Amino acid sequence: MISPFNVVILAAGRGTRMMSDLPKVLHPLAGRPMLAHLLDTARSLDPLQICVVYGYGGEQVPQAIGGTDITWVLQAEQHGTGHAVQQVLPYLAGSGVTLILYGDVPLTTADTMRALTAVAVQDKLALLTVNMDDPSGYGRIVRDACGKVLAIVEHKDADAQTRTITEVNTGLMALPTHRLAGWLSRLSNDNAQGEYYLTDIIAMAVADGVAVQTCQPAHHREILGVNSKAQLAQLERLHQHEVANRLMMQGVTLLDPARLDVRGSLHCGRDVMIDVGCVFEGRVELGNNVSVGAHCVLQNVRIGAGTQIAAFSHLVDATVGTDNHIGPFTRLRPGTVLAADVHVGNFVEIKNSQVDDGSKINHLSYVGDSTVGKQVNIGAGTITCNYDGANKHRTVIEDNAFIGSDTQLVAPVTVGKGATIGAGSTITRDAPAGELTLSRSKQLTITGWQRPVKKSKG
Ligand code: UD1
Ligand code: CA
After folding, report:
1. What is the pLDDT of residue 93?
2. In which domain, by residue range, is 46 found?
3. What pTM does this model have?
4. Could you confirm whether 363 is annotated as catalytic?
5. Which of 41, 328, 409, 440 is the most exposed place for a label (fewest CB within 10 A)?
């Protein structure tokens, strides 16, 4: 990589059209502040330093982002992009190149950033430009008859002729750092917006004999800024589409790539199938041949090879082994660890529990703070009563135990190896291995009993 090389991210703007109290760059894209995405990309270039200019929203921005490698530079009042870069000057290493990015343009790729800096190391000014069908609002790239860049003219300062230019400034640029101080000191705010325009340095570079070279991004999304919730949603889709394409290239089957949301990192083995409407958050790993049914939410989970997760399941901070059958409508909460061949069915909630090989919890159960052995069968409607109102206690169910339906296991309690619990029992003391234990009132029949009949009126 080119060194030394500074990254400056302008992020002081207010974002009025977001209609929000949250500073614009903190609005989430794929579950994380848009500024965090840009920082990830910038870091991947291994720059000497990253300076972020913040202002609107005050300390909220540095606090939300953190990052000990970032130099935070306050621009208390926003007097324009040139003014923003002026605030950074004292922090910049004088030699090498400075790359200027916008905090509200989150999808710029490392390749594009590299291309800009590669131009600037040749003592040139690199500008990222695009052609737009509707260039209104943007700074126009003014060239001479030979195509040489002369200046950028902001839309509000442009005459009718200049406004017909369709090549616009994306705002992203790279330049030799040692030139910056001189140019910035000559900026004035004598323009339509009364701001110090960073874009005025282009004409200064030309006057100083510094060549201005333009680069174009490989993808249009790289230059899209977020000014409104509608644009944020548009970028979210573009980003998700890109994630979906990457997954499909790795061989993942997505039944509809337009209906996938990855808010974190999703790592897939071979022949993984994902149905529509699934949300993946944090770090999610899916082993070979895993299938995820429609409308599942998986957050920080590891799923072993061959496991099938049926529709509408919600899994958080859990580890699922190989060849499990999960769902539909299963909820796995933090601390759940399922071994191999486990079946967890509809309306079953498991929390902070280990379930060993071959066990089945198929219907309508709550298993919390429990250790469940191998080949255990937990009948429909079984509840571990783990909480006494003050403390939580563990339930231990040993290998091959059979828990009859509608049982309450009042913790702390142990069900021994191979024990059977009769349906409808409330188990408050340990159930010995190999025996049938039940607590149930005796069934009785009252022969000849008559149902009351309705009195006839009048
Ligand atoms: C800027 C460019 C314009 C370009 C357009 C692309 C200038 C003068 N104009 O215009 O040529 O076509 O971007 O979107 O540079 N910011 C600060 N402090 C400030 C002002 C802005 O940090 O005082 C930050 C904003 O948070 C934002 C970025 O700089 O991330 C751009 O600011 P914005 O007001 O959107 O610039 P435009 O007027 O749209
Ligand atoms: Ca803008």
Report:
1. 80
2. 5-223
3. 0.93
4. yes
5. 440
